């Protein structure tokens, strides 16, 4: 019985790792914006890097259109902020990420506990 739990947990961990690698699809990019598609949430996101050499990367959900420019960034963020769309998209993405992380942690904990129980007997 303990071996079945361990085997199922290892198999589930493998499925979770594959699903995690499947989540993001990188799209074209330019000097300032890198575009990626979240397959789980079915959302297009733009990674905005303000200056070369900085580590400040901002993820922006794209609802209205599929490209951004540096001139159109501020009006776009103002429109999204006023409508509340940006918050809904961030919450949805964060919930999916948190659920995935929770499943990974729980699965790893079950694997460790199963190994300890099998080793003990």
Would you give an account of this structure?
There is one protein chain. This protein is of the alpha+beta class. It is built from three helices and four strands; from the N terminus they run αββββαα. A four-stranded antiparallel sheet has the order 1-2-3-4. A hairpin with a 3-residue loop joins β1 and β2. The radius of gyration is 20 Å and the shape is elongated. The two termini are 12 Å apart. The mean pLDDT is 84.
The poorly predicted ranges are: none
**Largest beta-sheet characterization:** 4 strands, antiparallel
Number of helices: 3
Please tell me the overall pLDDT: 84
Molecular shape: elongated
Radius of gyration (Å): 20 Å
Helical residues, percent: 55-70%
Quickly list its features:
alpha+beta, 4 strands, 19% strand, four-stranded antiparallel β-sheet, single chain, 121 residues
Brief write-up:
By secondary structure, the protein is of the alpha+beta class. The protein has helices spanning 2-22, 70-83, 85-120; strands at residues 24-29, 33-38, 43-48, 58-62.
List the helices and strands and how they pair.
Elements: H1 2-22, E1 24-29, E2 33-38, E3 43-48, E4 58-62, H2 70-83, H3 85-120
Antiparallel strand pairs: 1-2, 2-3, 3-4
